[in-house]
Amino acid sequence: MPDKESGPDGRRRTGRGVRRLARLALDLGISPLAYYGLFLAGVPTWRALLAATVVAGGWLLVTVALDRRVDGLAAFMLGMYAVMFGLAVATADERLLLVRDPLTSGLAGAVFLATCATATPATAYLARRVHRATVDADGMRRHRVQTAVLGTGLVAEAAARMVLVFTLPVRVAAGVSPVVEFAVLPVLVGWMLAYRRRTALGGAR
């Protein structure tokens, strides 16, 4: 028998999946790409952040035109870069500039936690965006747990990095802060994968 995944329906599903992933990558990556590209090219930080904010705003308008609604993820990226641009313009203090990255994590964690009080927690929203998944009541409960844990972890990681920024020498904080981030994120992702496996096995019994 022919492989269903290699037929027209399988190819269409694959194509839709690729388009959804590409759209998610643009939502998350277009403004950071603008910022880091300009920063590495030698553009001053505040100018690079301004450009990233403009790019994020432009992409938000594109998503509104495509979807006929405001995309939450694109709006979040716009708000995040607007805040970072405001910080860069308001001060040249090195410690406050170091706050930008943990502030980003903290904002993301706060958004995750806030969505726990809504009908669609953040991980369920992302599952729908990427996989067009239909989430039942039990699945929504699991997504709420995942979103709460990830949000709490991001807020705690951001708070710890803030403490480091304001208590350690600037050069030390600049080196240690990313280490904390890269130590925490794999733990959160590992927990999420283990939780999904455990709940999937429990539901199969």
Automatic annotation (TrEMBL):
Q: Where are the transmembrane segments?
A: 21-42, 48-66, 73-92, 104-127, 148-166, 172-195
In the record, what lineage is assigned to the organism producing the protein? Bacteria, Bacillati, Actinomycetota, Actinomycetes, Micromonosporales
Identify the keywords attached in UniProt to this record, alphabetized. Answer: Membrane, Transmembrane, Transmembrane helix
Highest taxon of the source?
Bacteria
Per the UniProt entry, what species is this protein from, by scientific name? Actinocatenispora rupis
Q: Know the name of this protein?
A: Intracellular septation protein A
